[in-house]
Amino acid sequence: MTIRRIAATAVAAAVTTPAVLLSVSPVYADAKPVTAQTGQQRDGKTSVEDLRKAAAAAQQKYDEAVAAEKAAVNAVEAAMADDAPHSVAAAKARKEAAAAAAKATADKERDEAKAARAALPETATADEKAEADKKLAAAEAAATAAEARKTAADAEAAKAGKAADDIVVDAGRKLAAARKAVDIALAEKRAADEALADAEKRVCVYEGKLTTTLTGLPTEIVAGSTVDFTVRVTNGTAKTMDKVLPSVFFHGTDKSGTKTVDDLFGVQWSTAASPAWKHVAKDHFLGSVTPLKKGAHADIKVRLTVDAKAPAGNGTALVSGQYVNNDGTCGGNIALWHDFTTLPAGSKPATSGTVTPSKTTPGTSGTTPQGSTSSQAVGATTSSTSTTPSGSTGSLASTGSSSALPLAGAAGAAVVLGAGTVVLTRRRKAGASS
Q1: Residues 221/304, Cβ–Cβ less than 8 Å
Q2: 419-430 vs 3-16: helix axis angle to the nearest 10?
Q3: What pLDDT digit, counting tens, does each position of 382-409 carry?
Q4: What pTM was computed for the model?
Q5: 4 has pLDDT over 60
Q6: For residue 197, what pLDDT is reported?
Q7: Half-sphere exposure of 62 toward its Cβ, with a 13 Å CA cutoff?
Q8: How far is CA 175 from each of CA 62, 178, 189, 251, 384, rounded to the nearest angstrom?
Q9: What is the share, in percent, of the chain residues with pLDDT greater than 90?
Q10: CB 197 within 8 Å of CB 52
Q11: pLDDT for 133
Q12: Is residue 226 over pLDDT 50?
């Protein structure tokens, strides 16, 4: 496809649906889940990006809580250690209090001295009485001093013991608080993780193993004629897809590439299960396959009618496929373009060949259908509204998001073409012709 042809398609998308290019250019990039919007909310819900940030913040909070709990456990162990300063002080105080038990000895000696003084006979001499009184006074003084020492030692032991106990109790309280914080942080982490997982399930992803191919479309189509071809969608994944929506979008210009004639293309589809021809709706979907089992494929007959008023020029058919599952997961592949030439009414094609798909962009799986060759019918679920709109701005003007997916088939084309092509086109049109 020439630069002019690519640019013309991109211009049509940019002019008629600028929001598509601006919002979906990251879609399917590097096969990472993304949303069609990058703001804080989408459809009134928190964006996946913000949910990821919330989950990361919850994880960090949980990690910090676990670390704090570990530190609290270590603090309790340190508080209860025998070599902790407060434990050493308490042990010393207890030892001193135990040593103060000498009071009992002093009391005994005092009592014995008192008994000895009382036991002196009346015949005792004055010196004997004086000696007994002296011993009694000394014993009483010793007992009084021992009493004071014991009181002080007991008080110090109680004080040191209480201080040590307070440190251990405080460490225990901090450990209990840390464990409660871990429980709260874990609950918040689980809630954030679940919210993120639930949101990511509902974010559309690139799926290269869902392939859509187009066969039988002539390389030259005469205005005023009708051609039939086939679109095949293949589920090459290992899982059943609950609902698959193949799509085809036609874009055409005159030979100059500046005049869009999309409104002169009429598209219908039909299947073996629903043989009546139905006009493709504004979302460009060719009905739906419900379900498409792993390895299976489904064929859709497509009929293109080119209005007799169509000028000689160039055309492009873009074919893609999307899926949505009952659990909310969804995704799709990148559209492949197929070039053809439109001839004026009454002309005769110079060749009977059929189009071949363009090269895929990096990350796609190519154009060969994957999986087995078993076939599955397509359900007739698409509206029968005609795709031929009035005006000449191109059918993308009527392209809206499907109720099943955030992106319609034409959006896949925008992904392939890229916003950069739009810029290139504008520069070329503002400068020289190619």
Answers
A1: yes
A2: 110
A3: 332 223 222 222 222 222 333 334 333 3
A4: 0.49
A5: no
A6: 86
A7: 17
A8: 15, 5, 20, 69, 68
A9: 41
A10: no
A11: 78
A12: yes
Mean pLDDT within 233-242:
95
How far separated are the first and last CA of the chain, in Å rounded?
13
Q: Which tokens in the block code for residue 279?
A: 């006009």
Q: Output the six-digit token pair for 138.
A: 């000394």
